[in-house]
Design goal:
The protein is built from 16 helices and 10 strands. The protein has helices at residues 8-25, 27-38, 58-61, 63-76, 100-113, 126-136, 143-154, 158-172, 176-183, 204-234, 250-258, 300-305, 307-314, 330-348, 366-379, 394-402; strands at residues 46-51, 80-86, 117-120, 139-142, 238-244, 275-281, 284-290, 318-324, 353-359, 383-385.
Length: 411
């Protein structure tokens, strides 16, 4: 292109103007590319999973299923699973939990896969965690710490944040030395976030003081809940609590039962905050409440911290135990919830009516429906086949929640 009249300065200006025009003319096609070029994403942890059940135990039989669940927890926390290792042990070793030879194999796999994190399905002692990190040269977590991190990620309400912070600090107290090392790296990642994170940089005395303050605040919240429950009871409202294994479809069922919006996501622990919705049915006012989900090996500190939330179930007139009937291990999951629920109800001294919602029934074939019916008959459950998405059974479950009728079959 020859220089235009006006000399080199005008020529350079014309080239610049033309370039700008060409850029803006093609902006529609290049805008998404530009956004992708400048988008900054937090790097995902590359996790290697380790299962070490005792020989001959039920956990040994179901180890692959447990690791599948651990993989889903890792995904919920924002990590990506790059591999898994299993060792069946006679008993845990005091230093590494697994045998030294297996630990060296894990170290080799970490190097080969470029893993940045190792997650054990079993709970590790502070000593075991420290020795494993010294050997593997990457961070090591156990299932309990992973669940705590997910709760920190998902907590939204003030009460849930207080509960999670309390559980994090009580878990961290005996593990401070190892966690100080992580926090000194000044980086995020699974297990290094949440409302309790800054407190882990303090000494044991300050953490104990913080734990005491959090318990006082939660006691105030519990008192406020008690007053709300009393007012609800004075209004003659029938209180129905939805409980169940995580991802069983409680939030979807709450939305189907009440017609109100509720957060729904196909992930473990998609919701932590208690949600309540009221409906009118046959002259009765029903209050449905979605509570936090259960999972096998739920950390003790977390169960204790969420005691106030679980009291929603203990204070209910009706408990709807939501079971993912389409899951291969639906009976095991129901047993986990049943055991936890038994402890909550024993503390409350009440025996509310329990309905079992065999949810996701639209995913079952005729033979599976018949098998579920036989299992329910053996247990004497009052059960209803439901589908929060397709609709069957929802109206029947709503009516049963408001009635006084009892039974022991699948309806």
């Amino acid at each position: 292109m020859p220089p235009p009249a006006g000399g080199n300065s005008a020529w350079r200006e014309a080239r610049f103007t033309g370039a700008c025009r060409r850029h803006w003319n093609s902006a529609a096609g290049s805008e998404s590319i530009a956004r992708n070029l400048i988008e900054v994403r937090e790097p995902r942890e590359r996790a290697l999973l380790v299962g070490a059940p005792r020989k001959g135990s039920p956990e040994a039989r179901d180890v692959e299923e447990h690791l599948d669940e651990l993989a889903r927890l890792t995904d919920t926390a924002g990590g990506v699973v790059v591999g898994r290792i299993v060792q069946f042990i006679a008993k845990p070793t005091p230093d590494l939990y697994i045998g030294h030879g297996k630990a060296e194999e894990v170290a080799r796999r970490v190097a080969d896969l470029g893993a940045t994190l190792v997650i054990f399905d079993e709970e590790l002692s502070p000593r075991q965690g420290k020795h494993l990190e010294d050997l593997l040269k990457v961070r090591v977590m156990d299932r309990a710490e992973l669940i705590l991190d997910i709760f920190a990620l998902r907590a939204r309400s003030r009460e849930a944040r207080l509960q999670v912070e309390l559980a994090q600090l009580e878990y961290a107290l005996p593990r401070l030395t190892r966690m100080w090392v992580h926090l000194s790296r000044i980086r995020g990642g699974i297990g290094l976030r949440g409302p309790g994170e800054t407190q882990l940089e303090t000494d044991r005395r300050r953490i104990r003081r913080k734990i005491s303050v959090l318990k006082e605040k939660l006691a105030e919240v519990a008192g406020h809940r008690d007053r709300l429950r009393a007012r609800t009871r004075e209004r003659g409202v029938v209180k129905v609590a939805l409980v169940g294994y995580t991802n069983a479809g409680k939030s979807s069922l709450l939305r189907a039962l009440t017609g109100a919006d509720a957060h729904v996501e196909d992930r473990l622990f998609a919701t932590l905050d208690t949600e309540s919705r009221e409906v009118q049915l046959n002259g009765k006012r029903l209050r449905f409440t979605d509570t936090v989900g259960f999972i096998r090996k739920l950390p003790h500190d977390l169960v204790a911290s969420f005691r106030a939330t679980l009291e929603e179930a203990a204070d209910a007139d009706v408990i709807v135990h939501v079971v993912d009937a389409s899951h291969p291990a639906w009976e095991d999951q129901a047993e986990v919830v049943g055991e936890a629920l038994h402890g909550v109800l024993a503390d409350g001294g009440r025996e509310p009516r329990v309905l079992v919602a065999l949810n996701k029934a639209d995913l079952l074939g005729p033979e599976e429906v018949a098998e579920r019916a036989r299992a329910v008959a053996q247990r004497g459950w009052e059960a209803v086949l439901t589908s929060a998405t397709a609709g069957p059974g929802v109206a029947q479950l709503r009516a049963l929640s408001a009635s006084g009728r009892h039974g022991g079959d699948v309806r």
